[in-house]
Design goal:
Chain A: This is AP-1 complex subunit gamma. The complex is a heterodimer of chains A (about 850) and B (about 150). Chain A is α+β, with helices and mostly antiparallel strands and about 850 residues long. Helix content of chain A is about 60%, strand content about 10%. Chain B has about 150 residues and is α+β, with helices and mostly antiparallel strands. The radius of gyration of chain B is 16 Å and the shape is globular. The chains are: A alpha+beta (about 850), B alpha+beta (about 150).
């Protein structure tokens, strides 16, 4: 016996454990299934309702789909309601079941009861596939002019779905939609404006028509803003905020880029902006939309100032939501008017410290957009502060962005380097490689000599303090290795207030070596770090003259390292360190490294940005920077010897990503060739057809499509997809061989030319062979086509038609006959003359169409012929 | 436009879900899990908006239920909150001081009300009175059907 829905829900809620619940559900499902099978009409709606509940809990319920259809087909409203609900919940849009509903839907759409029509429209609007919409489009269009408001508004939103899924039907709806604006009912106005927004945004070809409605829209908005409240539509002291926002949105789309429309709406926008109360959420939503519209259209400055003021007010608001949307909108304003936003810089920076994470994220974005030459120093400092509290995923991105901003706007090298070092101190673990590589370059550059001692000291101090930030470790170790001699002298501290104001003390050689040793022995020292330290030891042998013995010992201790590379290197270095090694050579090898200049670095950044798409493939270091057990990483072995070959780092990394780079470069090369070929008369249609025929095969297919794209008259569909790649290869080669004017070998003299016979077409025994010869006219080719029939049936009414691309012209002479006896006994000859205006550059391509009767049946064949000799 | 609406309890149980864009069931359940874990773990003091994938999530907590609406990037978030509030007020007027239990036992009625407010992710009726009027008319028709069924 079937139980009521209420009972089922109560039973399920009473279950104490998940398995109990599963048992109850299973039992009920079984009962429902049997009842469905028994075709029980009376309780079907109740069973489907129970099934929907079961579905919401997450259990499978697909067996109910057909039942929903039966319910929809029932004449009772009760059944229909549940049926449609079931349809929207249980059936997915891609299911075939959906098409079965189309019939019921069309019946319900024309039902005399408006509520039934409403049910059908809602179902159609929420879940439907393009075929259904296309079938029912005309009915929906009719319902848009229905007398009942209820039906009209639902039909309008159903049309919105139609616009999305079946864009070519929009044209029929446009006039009706605009006339809907004359309606008095708010709901109809609401839905009509929604429709118009869709049209304005997605179908700009109708924009002109829709723009005519701007005065009407302005009038409606004015009524809403200025007239008194109607109790029905008021929300927190605002008259129908939903309609107001929608109209404002539509005005934005209509006014964009159109001076006339913009002028019509200037007044009302100013009115809305000044009159609307910003105390409650409803009012604020209207103000927000107003600001958005003002930013979209090209209005006078006064309005824009008004908008930015509103945003400024929002920023000071206590409510988090308001501040969030203000920051977001300011992000858009910044592109238009940077100075206005700079005024609020203080508050924005405050937001960086907000406890709410969403606000912080928005504020960071905005701060980055505000960075300019004047503001770079304080803003970068703020971002550094933020970096301290950012989450690890964010840190990586932030470091890159900060480095980029610093690179573009830095006032001095010293400041730049200091900033990068600070960044590494905070987030060296998470920063990308370019950061510390850039830092190294900056430290090593000849221009940095003035502040180099300070930097090296600072790096030393930071390393002593905290060696867990890998980026910092690498930089510091490298700097110590290269410039260890500078550590012997004291240095004044930076003007930066991050470090103490006391000057850096001089470090003795032993101190330095102790620190390096300690860093090396840390449990989380990466192989890269160890490698760098080893190389630093080597370099210090020339900088620290009194520590030779200790250095040799330190290098020796690497001899039994588990990493192959380290072991090998240590042996090599030991050789260099022996007393008998030639000191001049040693000095030369271990001298200071030349660092890339600014221009070279800029070039590298550009190249690095190109290959930046494979983000996590760090190339040099293993990508698991966040893992601390890097000792297992064998990948690092060949990355160890970095310091000696710093200049090679980026190229090597680029080489590693060379495959992607090369393919990128390769395709661009091919595209270059493509340009040569499409630089002919038929470039326009070929491009269109290229798009049609594009199969994502990259540059080669483009070329191919281009060659075939010349088959203008016939439909493009049959062309390129069928072409075998082999033909493409030979075509390419042919083109290379016979093609380009400069590159090609001089064409053989005309008289001695002979061309192979081309078998243009062969099917069902019908063969078309073509012989070529140069014509007397310029660029003319004479083709002698021979048709034979090797089948068993005689062929009559044989007709041959052909077409060539736009850059050639064709003339067919009369054929010698129109019937082909079977078994190849006879043949038909036909002379064809083709003038190829792009002779030498583009070969001829021909589309042929053959019609004949054979065995009482009419046969039509179409094909593309593309084996023409390239010189013709 | 609103892509989907979710009502989840504080324990993470789905009380109502409606998608306005095509979405296979598997993806729906996955999305629900993701979104509910994101939102249920948020502190009450933070703002009601969240960036998620390519969309924005606007949510509001009413008693023990979270109402979540997922909107497009360039939509007005404050208005989305207003729409959710509109829905809640309609529910409130219909059920008379609605609580979560009402929505559990009468989920189908909640869906009917939602259908009167939103179609295809857009608002269709901004007057609560009109919404309730239509709902009550349809309920009356259901009653007639029930009575006719019992008689015949």
């Amino acid at each position: 016996m079937s139980i009521k829905l209420r009972e089922l829900i109560r039973n399920v809620r009473a279950c104490k454990t998940a398995s109990e619940e599963r048992a109850v559900i299973a039992k009920e499902c079984a009962l429902i299934r049997t009842s469905f099978k028994d075709e029980d009409n009376t309780f079907r709606h109740r069973n489907v309702a129970k099934l929907l509940f079961i579905h919401m809990l997450g259990y499978p319920s697909h067996f109910g789909q057909m039942e929903c259809l039966k319910l929809i087909a029932s004449p009772r409203f009760l059944d229909k309601r549940i049926g449609y609900l079931g349809l929207s919940l249980l059936v997915e849009e891609s299911a075939e079941v959906l098409t079965l509903v189309t019939n019921s839907l069309s019946l319900d759409l024309s039902h005399r009861n408006p509520y039934v029509q409403g049910l059908a429209l809602a179902a159609l609007g929420n879940i439907s596939n393009p075929e259904m919409l296309r079938d029912l489009a005309s009915v929906v269009l009719k319902l848009l002019s229905n007398t009942n408001v209820y039906v009209r508004k639902k039909a309008a939103l159903c049309a919105a779905q139609l616009f999305k899924k079946v864009p070519d039907m929009v044209e029929d709806f446009v006039p009706v939609v605009i006339s809907l604006l004359q309606d008095r009912n708010h709901a109809v106005l609401l839905t009509a404006t929604t429709l118009m927004i869709d049209i304005a945004r997605d179908h700009p070809q109708f924009l002109k028509k829709v723009r005519k409605a701007v005065p009407q829209l302005v009038k409606i908005l004015k009524n809403l803003v200025l007239s008194g409240y109607t109790q029905e539509y008021v929300v927190s002291d605002v008259n129908d905020p939903f309609l107001q926002v929608k109209i404002l949105r539509l005005l934005g789309f209509l006014g964009k880029g159109h001076a006339g429309a913009t002028e019509q709406m200037n007044d009302i926008l100013a009115q809305v902006a000044s009159n609307t109360e910003g105390a409650k959420n409803a009012g604020n939503s209207i103000l927000l939309e107003c600001v958005r519209t003002i930013m979209m259209i090209d209005c006078e400055d006064g309005l824009r100032v008004l908008a930015v003021n509103i945003l400024g007010r929002f920023l000071g608001n206590q409510v988090n939501n308001i501040r969030y949307v203000a920051l977001e909108m300011l992000g858009q304003v910044v592109h238009v008017d940077k100075t206005a936003v700079q005024r609020h810089r203080g508050i924005i920076v405050e937001c960086l410290r907000d406890p709410d994470v969403s606000i912080r994220v928005r504020a960071v974005d905005l701060v980055f957009m505000l960075i300019s030459h004047d503001t770079v120093e304080p803003l970068c400092k703020e971002i550094l502060n933020y970096l301290v509290v950012a989450s690890p995923e964010q840190k990586k991105e932030l470091c890159t962005r900060l480095a980029e901003a610093a690179w573009r706007f830095s006032p001095s090298k010293r400041w730049h380097t200091n900033l990068l070092v600070s960044m590494l101190c905070i987030a060296g673990k998470n920063a990308r490689d370019e950061i510390w590589q850039t830092t190294i370059s900056l430290v090593g550059q000849p221009e940095s000599e003035s502040f180099r001692p300070q930097i090296v000291h600072r790096l030393y101090a930071s390393l002593a303090e905290d060696a867990s930030q890998f980026g910092l470790v690498y930089t510091a170790v490298w700097a110590i290795g290269e410039f260890g001699n500078l550590l012997a002298e004291p240095a004044p501290s930076d003007h930066d207030d991050t470090s103490s104001s006391a000057p850096y003390p001089p470090r003795s050689e032993d101190e330095v070596l102790d620190l390096l040793e300690k860093t090396r022995l840390r449990h989380d020292a990466t192989l890269t770090a160890k490698g760098l330290i080893l190389s630093a030891f080597l370099k210090l042998s020339t900088r620290f003259p009194s520590s030779q013995a200790r250095l040799t010992e330190l290098v020796k201790s690497y001899e039994d390292s588990m990493a192959m590379e380290l072991q090998a290197r240590s042996c090599e270095y030991l050789q260099i360190l022996t007393a008998s090694f030639d000191p001049t050579v040693k000095d030369e090898w271990l001298a200071q490294m030349p660092c890339p200049t600014d221009e070279e670095m800029a070039e590298r950044r550009v190249k690095a940005a190109e290959v930046m798409s494979d983000e996590d493939e760090d190339g040099l270091l293993d990508s698991d920077d966040d893992d601390d057990d890097d000792d297992d990483d064998d990948d690092d072995d060949d990355d160890d010897d970095d310091d000696e070959d710093d200049d090679d780092d980026t190229p090597r990394r680029r080489k590693k990503k060379g495959s992607s780079g090369a393919s990128g470069a390769g395709s661009s090369n091919l595209l270059d060739l493509d340009d040569i070929f499409s630089g002919g008369g038929s470039s326009q249609p070929t491009q269109q057809q290229q798009q049609q025929q594009q199969q994502g095969g990259g540059g080669e297919i483009d070329l191919l499509a281009d060659i075939f794209g010349g088959g203008a008259p016939a439909p493009a569909a049959t062309a390129a997809p069928q072409a075998p790649m082999a033909a493409a290869g030979t075509d390419l080669l042919d083109v290379f061989g016979g093609g380009g004017p400069a590159a090609a070998p001089p064409p053989p003299p005309a008289g001695s030319e002979s061309f192979p016979t081309l078998k243009a077409f062969e099917k069902n025994g019908i063969t078309v062979n073509m012989d070529f010869a140069r014509g007397s006219q310029d660029k003319q080719v004479l083709i002698n086509a021979t048709y034979t029939n090797s089948g068993s049936e005689e062929v009559t009414n044989f007709k041959f038609q052909s077409a060539v691309p736009k850059y050639a012209t064709i003339k067919l002479e009369a054929a010698s006959g129109s019937s082909l006896p079977a078994f190849g006994i006879g043949d038909i000859q036909q002379r064809i003359s083709v003038v190829n205006s792009m002779q030498g550059t583009k070969p001829i391509v021909m589309k042929i169409r053959i019609t004949y009767s054979a065995g009482g049946a009419q046969v039509v064949e179409q094909a593309t012929v593309n084996g023409f000799p390239p010189q013709l | 436009m609103i892509n989907f609406i979710l009502l989840i309890s504080r324990q993470g149980k789905t009380r109502l879900k409606k998608w306005f864009v095509p979405c296979p069931e598997r993806d729906q359940f996955r999305t629900i899990k993701e979104v509910s874990s994101l939102i249920l773990n948020r502190s009450p003091k933070v703002c009601n908006f969240l960036e998620w994938r390519d969309y924005k999530l606007c949510y509001k907590r009413y008693a023990s239920l979270f109402f979540i609406a997922c909107i497009e990037q360039n939509d007005n978030e404050l208005l989305a909150l207003e729409m959710v509030h509109h829905f809640v007020e309609c529910l409130d007027r219909y059920f008379g001081n609605v609580c979560e239990l009402d929505l559990i036992f009468n989920f189908h009625k909640a869906y009917y009300i939602l259908d009167e407010i939103l179609i295809s992710g857009e608002l269709q009726e901004s007057s609560k009175r009109a919404v309730l009027h239509h709902i009550s008319e349809q309920d009356a028709m259901m009653q007639e059907n029930e009575q006719a069924k019992r008689k015949g």
